[in-house]
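Lay summary

Proteins are chains of building blocks that fold into shapes. Our project writes down both the chain and a compact code for its shape. Here are two examples, one after the other.
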Amino acid sequence: MTQSTRKRLTVSDVLTEHIHKWQRGDIITIEAGTGVGKSHFIKNELYPIAKKERSRILFFLNRTRLNEQFQEEIKRDGKSDVITIILYQKYEWELQKNSAIVKADYKYIVCDEFHYFLTESRYNKNTEDSFYAMINEKSKIRICMSATADAMIAFLKYKNIKHESYSIPHDYSHIKELIFYQNDKVLEKFLRQIPKNHKAICFTKSSAKAFKLHDTFKNSMFVCSPSGSAPEKKHMDKEKVSKMLIDEKFDEQFVFSTSTLDNGINLKDKLIKYVIVDIMDIDVLIQCLGRKRIIDQSDKVTIIIKNISNKMLNKLIRDCDKQIKPALYLQEHGTSSYVEKYRKQSNLIVYDRPVNNEVGYDKAINDLMFFKEIYDKQFFEQVVSEEDGYMTYIKSKLQQDTYTILDDTYEKADITDYLDTIVGKRLYKEEQAELIKKLNLRDGRDRRLKSYRTINEYFNEDNMPYNIRGKNRDQRRVLENGDINPNYNKTFWLLAKHQCL
């Protein structure tokens, strides 16, 4: 049975027989792709067990929209007697007020999308509070679930936190094609060529970029965080967004969104043929890809991802080092030396912790942020070690054999359009220089190649139906209109186009 025809393994298939073995104090991690029933497992397998035990389930979620959606489901299914849902952010706020109490009758704490602790740590320093509060609930069974659990599991190992891991294999057999792009203008060209009866959802790293695309493509919807500080949020049609979340589909041809829709939101529509992602964090990227839910074996999708060049990867490594090195210095030399050395330099990882000393505070390191920077740096170093490393890594991650680069396709198309305009024309010195500049062929020492023979080799290697005949001399003294020929006795190239076999 092939991967595309066999039934997908679900969380319930793997875990149902294990629930009864779990003991209070256990930490369970579940790494499973999107759409394989993580929430279904809690609602339909764990719920009846907890109800029979007369215990309860505290269920953490990380997105307001997901919280609203899940609250409705629990209420509709009559399961709110056992399952209580709370946002991580709400819990962190309660912790700051010292009023967060996990009641005794909660036997199970479920941390849904628990990659949240790491991926959000860059923007929310309080994820450290909710993480350690969860870890310290040692009388509970803590179940941590995510489609992107690798980094968090690595963090648990780094902190020597005992846990039991379960993993359900990812299945990317629904991917029709994997495409990368480098230039935003190239993506816009591609979007304009998508058939009108096909839909696309595009995730971007900023609300400004998402809104710009929405403004460019009129038959589209714009989505960003309703609670964020982005000025573009005033342009969001909240009613349309709510309708999309309820219907699990959208009427427009395009949705341009930030990562606010990165998890828990389902879009079930066979007309969604393209998922486009311009986001650097791999965990968030994978989550975004999972928003399009696959309906059946004929439901295929083209994935388009913005490439991260090796030059950009090296910059990201340097950015990580700017955060990591001061934190390491603090670990080794203490607060006084750190303040003396880095007093004018801000650091995301290091914060002021109130203590009883003469200055009233001490410098401390946010564990999750520190680990995230180290983890990302190691990832970037691994990827940059080979040419086209990022594209190769994503290709492997998404279980694909090949990928194409959109920029190459469009660049070649643009060149072909240009060549067609000069077929049969005499190319004198100026026109030759323009052609050479357009093609921009270079040798190993980055010197521009200028001979027509080299250009013919390029045409031949790239299967382009063109050929230059060089060393022609213009012997016409007078042009057809009777004017004197200004190019008399000058050499020229002649570009010919031949039929493809």
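And here is the second example, written the same way.
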Amino acid sequence: MKRLIADADAKVILCGREVITALSGMAEHLPELDGITCVATEDIPDEAAASWREPDLTADSVAFLQYTSGSTSAPRGVMVTHGNLLDNERVITERMGHTPDVIAEYGHEMFVSWLPVYHDMGLIGPVLNSVHLGVTATFFSPLHFLQQPRRWLTAISRYRPHTSGGPNFAYELCLKHAGPGLLDGLDLSSWKVAFNGAEPVRAATLRRFAETFAPAGFRREALYPCYGLAEATLMVTGSTVQAPPTLLQAPAFGPHAGLADAAAVSCGLPGPEVTVAIADPERHEELPEGEAGEIWVRGASVAKGYWRNALATRETFRATLAGHEGRFLRTGDLGFLRDGELFVTGRLKDLIVIDGRNHYPQDLELTAEMAHPALRPGCTAAFSVDGEATEGGGEAGEQTVVVAEIAPDAASEAEKIIDVIRSGIGESHGLPVRAVVLVQPGTIPKTSSGKIQRHATRAAYLEGTLAVVDAPALS
């Protein structure tokens, strides 16, 4: 927060009285707040509206700074313009099927959301698309969802919206707390767009969620994987409404051959007038269909750049590609196109290179989680460390480390779980694992949107600060 306050050079904070009280209690730890004026919105008199004057704005004027989640680097302030916002609301509206007929059919009841509104998924989607379309949305706090995930499903059952969603971990939390008592009282038949984004979308999660909540009226066709990022305002690609997600089975001779739950999940088609290309990140050349590379994006939703960071703006927002006009946004994400649909495979900065071979950490994490049921879905981090840095020069070269959350009651099986993970990754990927570290649930670093922070996990591993699960001593 200190970094963001300093970077944004904020002068005024508009908030409720409760937030002002909370901020005053943080003054000791945040002296940066001293020079900022706090205004309680409840105390602004209605008659002040008469003094409002329309500002001198254009489509290119910055509407706000949207800070990135910081999964691989320090958060950066993305300059989102009014033109970016209008275009991305158009993309969301088209891709999610928010047509006038659908809005009328739902009586304008379009969204239920618990997503934090300081994150782009929660703000640009449920909040601003509701304003853009003039529809109704129902909101409750992220904390209330995390305390009792059933509240999300209960709200959907009660208010019967067309669209609601969250990161993959949200669907896993609902599965964890699903039971006959919950299912008996739910009606999810109105839910047409269950969007899933902001972190890797797991085929196993989609299957289990559809199967578990089918008795409550949930349809598999409602599952809606999508892809976006703050630098493109929000949405880049989205699935087809009322069609099941496109799954690409694991290669017959790959590490997950024959496993349906290891299928690659399509994040859908680009929005209208959005161009998605797959490029070689070093040669800056477009790659053929089916070949993995860096995801590049062009369109009116692509933001102006990074606030007060001309170098990063030039490197990220000003890429050119032979055969295409205009500038592209380099997303830093890896993926491939198949029949026009985007499949996201990982982050460029997270790629593990061992003995000249590329390994996606998501693949290793999936193998680990499928190796033993004690591992929590979406709570595993794989990364590489330098042998010399960790062994005092005893071993050279990059080596793989896996950190995984398990339930404390599985601690007695720690040695067995570690052996199973090692064997699974060795057999599936031909890759030796330097260390498997089992940690307490909820302790692996994640971004506000639920993405695994592999770099932060790696740093904690090297510093010896992970919350390791201790196996009970043998008597």
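What can we say about the second shape? The longest strand covers residues 375-386.
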